[in-house]
Amino acid sequence: xxxxxxxxxxxxxxxxxxxxxxxxxxxxxxxxxxxxxxxxxxxxxxxxxxxxxxxxxxxxxxxxxxxxxxxxxxxxxxxxxxxxxxxxxxxxxxxxxxxxxxxxxxxxxxxxxxxxxxxxxxxxxxxxxxxxxxxxxxxxxxxxxxxxxxxxxxxxxxxxxxxxxxxxxxxxxxxxxxxxxxxxxxxxxxxxxxxxxxxxxxxxxxxxxxxxxxxxxxxxxxxxxxxxxxxxxxxxxxxxxxxxxxxxxxxxxxxxxxxxxxxxxxxxxxxxxxxxxxxxxxxxxxxxxxxxxxxxxxxxxxxxxxxxxxxxxxxxxxxxxxxxxxxxxxxxxxxxxxxxxxxxxxxxxxxxxxxxxxxxxxxxxxxxxxxxxxxxxxxxxxxxxxxxxxxxxxxxxxxxxxxxxxxxxxxxxxxxxxxxxxxxxxxxxxxxxxxxxxxxxxxxxxxxxxxxxxxxxxxxxxxxxxxxxxxxxxxxxxxxxxxxxxxxxxxxxxxxxxxxxxxxxxxxxxxxxxxxxxxxxxxxxxxxxxxxxxxxxxxxxxxxxxxxxxxxxxxxxxxxxxxxxxxxxxxxxxxxxxxxxxxxxxxxxxxxxxxxxxxxxxxxxxxxxxxxxxxxxxxxxxxxxxxxxxxxxxxxxxxxxxxx
Length: 644
Ligand code: MIC
Ligand code: SF4
Hints:
This protein is α/β, with parallel strands linked by helices. The strands form 6 sheets. It has a 7-stranded mixed barrel. The longest helix has 17 residues, at 72-88. The two termini are 39 Å apart.
């Protein structure tokens, strides 16, 4: 039996486990990336582990999220990350160099290699045939120290692409179609591989748009083959020697196959407030809009912005619309500046932002009240834009630019002849904004600079014998990490200060939650399906840890968040019978008697007693030997310290 692309990479990196679906595999990690909003914590954890120099082939720290410096906090964090990287062997991508995923794809990613990143859109690297996975900061810290990264062996999904996109239909429309078919939980426990004749019609940046937004399917990752198109992209980046060919075997077996004919796709949008709430632009109709934002790690490549510039050239942004554009990297920005496309964009009236995440994570450009904002981004969760009642639609750059000109939802196919933008034979690469670390023998001379905003990791404790605490919060289905630990300009600067950031935990759902949880001392949270979807931020586990959460009981979890709860020593429990969700109310007294012994004995099912109603509720927690020991130890940090 042949192998899929992902199985080949996993097999070549397998440190432990066997490749049976659902069982735990430990992978050797070749590369890591961090960004600043998760990076400060990841490097504090790396320091706590105590390995002097990173053991990966390449580890890069990017500054791209917290670039709005309205106080000392973000700048202090940047300084800390720069100095800690310099000392411990990590490359530092300076603020201004661009969004981690865009820059990593351009400059460092390599087909066939493994990459984990403390950001959920790390699968962007799948666009050049990497096995690139989003993870919690602590997992990245362990991998930097040479430890394995563990996942449950995923199922394999093959998406066969046939045909060719029609003019004005975009790679974004392909992933929106996949989201329409699979939904935001359809990819959980799966790796999505793209194949078929249609793949040959897609450039690397287009493939990367698709793998990037595979995160919204809940998938472990997404991957394209590495072929001649990949080779010419890498050659144009001056990195042809990093290229290897990679394809699935003809007799590879997939658990699921989905067929998409590219020729039949039309421009689409993900409507508020979920990336899988898909309608065609035609169905939405010519509704007025207030804002357009173009950029983010999904759609800010040279190709994307050249197409936008061609649409805007010689026109003016509609007077009722604010158009903001953030190029994905310095390379993209530079090339637009030199070839004149930037002038076309400026001339049309766009507001040019620095190359960073910006509005995607609520760092500025929040829309007006009830404002309709078309964005080329990947997430449109309620409130994420910074405007609580903002109505965010996720669209392609072509749809975004066309609509910015007319002031209403506009199908770009109405624009006339297609623009044909070839990929350049040589990108204008220059890594002058990436700082190499000092040599190992000089590391003692480097002082790590810590500002007053940097507070230590919250206190942990081994799993108690029994848990006997109230339910402090009950939430519904599809709770995102943006609900659990909101981001945005006011809260992001607190990412290295868990006591302070905890004051915002779950406030989107219930503004009294932090005070209530603190007053209760210890408690349990109850939730529905796909709990913790979205970002990789471990703060969505660390803030609950700080607030005394001992267990989270839900109908189902999203992958990265479940791993982050285990890493924080919080028990991730699921209802055996989903309808028992109704048997718990906020305030009920809950008990898990002898839970430590049950876990230590390897039991996977136990009773949660609702002491208020007397009902006994079966719950389960599937753990491997390793994750069991992590939970017993009180989290991955303690476990790693205990295991040397
Ligand atoms: C996001 O897009 O939600 C983020 C901000 O990039 C997060 C990381 C974070 O919260 O810092 C992610 O996707 O993991
Ligand atoms: Fe940055 Fe947005 Fe991409 Fe997250 S999704 S890495 S916030 S651009």
